[in-house]
Specification:
flat
Length: about 625
């Protein structure tokens, strides 16, 4: 009996233990419970799904500090771009004398980084002043109609001039002098102060970010990272370790490697978007920089180029502001004795009360200035040993280098035999890009019909004829021909911009008297806002609108720059060495094949000779 009671107690304890386990881990023991069915257990999708609530919270807490540090670091990297871009955008959107202070401050603070703290401080104080002035101007005691001026039109205007100038700012309505400064009546108040309040918030946020980062580094005895990168553990040594590491490297150092080419493309973008007098000045500036050819020589002139862009931006904004209209004085090109067309005034980007300069063009100038400022910083970092150790150097290879003799000393690994997917991408880039660029050149020369396209076709056929032999020449010889092609491309872009004054300013005269000139140079205005001639009924001179512009010239320019970087790369030397090896093997194979044929012919002659001797003996 005692044994039975002990067995019953043991069974009862086992049953209670089993029930306790069911309640504590129900999903783990559902298969053991016959009377307690439960839903099937979901399969975990990741290691985090297998964790309990406490483990998952711990896992999240471990990763949150790292995520926060990354966000703060990204904000520190890009806050200056965000603040300057928004302030310039507000200044361009609301052209006034008040906002001229913003534009001047950041136009020179971007290329000259030592002035950036001063620019932030000046903009903070000036924003507060503008907000107070705008609020005071809303007082009911201030009535603009009491001091607004009515400008009278000159009496010696012709009827055509009167009908045109009726839309001028001077004569269309009473002129409020405060509008030129940047003050106007508006309602509601908060909505119209939104841009200034956002500027103030961004400036405060900028200071917060810098103070937070400085305090964090002081507490943890850290120093500012040498490079402005996202993946701090990725260096130049990881570039050839796979597609993922290669992508991380270019996320870190894309602008470090290709910032100069990006600036050139943005300069061409400014030219194509504007096609006016200041675009022509940008084209001349681009020619001066590209003429230096060598990266080191370009770095020497780059501060002057950045200052040139800053001065251009500030002067153009001053042109957009113009003279105070309350003075009722029109510009000389609007005098009754002047016959200057409105299209010509627009192309020259002159200040005018009738045809106002388009301030949105300054956005493209600012993008170029911002990129040029970043590139100036890259030129400075290239001279630092710590940066070169992490990001690699941007030193150009020797132009007199012989690929065949240097291949065994090449610092980059050989990718010709495609041992990985990254090697396959390298083969596509360094082996076949040259022929793809020739295709782009051919398309650029054939999509339109003008005298400029002839140069592209001649260059394309020349490289198709001698391209294989050209790749085997020293780098200096290759660059000589390629730089000549780039120079022609920039020349075409510049000439199209210069000729745009005919296409946009004097197109009405050309349509009637010089149609051959329109067809020869494919003259047609591609910029909106210009008045076009009326369509003729006989259609004797059609404007080649589809063939105008520099879109294909810009695309060709981008690929020409990319191929030039390929020529200047150590990876390209492996391609040249492979081509030479293939030619040597092909030549050796031809010699062996010829020797085999000669040997067979000699053997055949010997056999025939022996046969003849046998016949003679018989």
């Amino acid at each position: 009996m005692q044994l039975e009671e002990e067995d019953d107690k043991e069974k009862e304890e086992n049953r209670r233990e089993e029930e306790r386990r069911r309640y504590e881990e129900p999903l783990e023991h559902c298969s053991k419970a016959e009377n307690y069915p439960c839903p099937p257990k979901a399969q975990p999708e990741s290691p985090v799904d297998e964790m309990s609530g406490t483990d998952r919270q711990t896992h999240t807490d471990m990763h949150m500090p790292h995520l926060q540090l990354t966000v703060w670091w990204l904000l520190e990297l890009h806050i200056i771009k965000i603040v300057s871009s928004y302030i310039i955008w507000v200044s361009i959107k609301e052209v006034s004398l008040f906002n001229y202070v913003f534009l001047v401050s950041w136009a020179f603070a971007l290329p000259f980084s030592q002035f950036r703290p001063l620019a932030s401080s000046v903009c903070t104080v000036w924003t507060c002043v503008i907000i107070v002035c705008k609020m005071l101007y809303q007082l009911t005691s201030i009535n603009p109609s009491t001091y607004s001026k009515n400008c009278s039109m000159p009496l010696n205007y012709t009827d055509a001039q009167r009908s045109e100038m009726a839309h001028s700012l001077l004569y269309s309505a009473p002129v409020d002098p405060a509008n030129w400064v940047g003050l106007r009546k508006f309602s509601p108040l908060l909505e119209n102060l939104r841009n200034n309040l956002l500027i103030l918030a961004l400036l405060a946020f900028e200071v917060t970010i810098y103070r937070h980062q400085d305090l964090y580094r002081m507490r943890n005895n850290l120093t500012t990272p040498v490079t402005r990168t996202v993946f701090h553990d990725i260096t130049r040594q990881h570039l050839d370790d796979g597609i993922l590491n290669c992508a991380k490297y270019f996320i870190n150092y894309f602008f470090y490697k290709f910032g100069l080419e990006t600036c050139f493309l943005l300069a061409v973008n400014v030219i194509g978007q504007r096609m006016d007098f200041y675009a022509m000045l940008h084209a001349f500036g681009l020619i001066v920089v590209i003429y230096r050819r060598r990266r080191k020589a370009i770095a020497e002139i780059w501060p002057k180029y950045s200052c040139f862009l800053a001065c251009m931006l500030t002067f153009q904004y001053f042109v957009c502001i113009g003279f105070p209209p309350a003075a009722c004085k029109d510009y000389p090109w609007r005098f009754p004795s002047s016959s200057t067309d409105s299209n010509v005034i627009k192309w020259l980007y002159f200040p005018d009360f009738h045809t106002k300069p388009n301030p949105l063009f300054l956005l493209y100038d600012f993008m170029l200035l911002l990129c040029a400022s970043l590139q100036r910083q890259v030129f400075e970092e290239e001279n630092e040993a710590a940066v070169r150790l992490l990001a690699g150097d941007n030193v150009e290879i020797c132009r007199d280098l012989d690929a065949a003799s240097f291949s065994q000393h090449n610092p980059v690994p050989d990718f010709i035999h495609c041992r990985s997917y990254l090697d396959m991408l390298k083969v596509i880039m360094f082996s076949y890009l040259f022929w793809f660029v020739l295709t782009i050149i051919f398309i650029t020369g054939t999509t339109r019909i003008s005298i400029f396209c002839m140069g592209y076709l001649v260059a394309c056929f020349y490289f198709l004829l001698f391209g294989g032999d050209l790749l085997l020449k020293p780098i200096k010889s290759i660059l000589h021909y390629w730089d000549f092609l780039i120079a022609y491309n920039v020349f075409v872009i510049t000439m199209k911009n210069i000729l745009s004054i005919l296409a946009c300013g004097y197109i009405k005269v050309l349509v009637t008297d010089h149609c051959w000139l329109i067809q020869l140079f494919s003259l047609a205005c591609t910029i909106k806002g210009y008045s076009k001639p009326e369509q003729q009924t006989n259609k004797q001179c059609e404007l080649p609108s589809d063939e105008a512009g520099i879109i294909w010239d810009s695309i060709c320019f981008a690929f020409l720059l990319l191929q030039r970087r390929v020529f200047m790369s150590y990876y390209f030397l492996h391609v040249v060495a492979d081509i030479r090896s293939s030619q040597i093997l092909a030549s050796r194979g031809a010699e062996l094949f010829q020797a085999t044929i000669v040997k067979a012919v000699k053997a055949r002659i010997e056999v025939e000779k022996k046969s003849m001797d046998l016949l003679k003996r018989q």
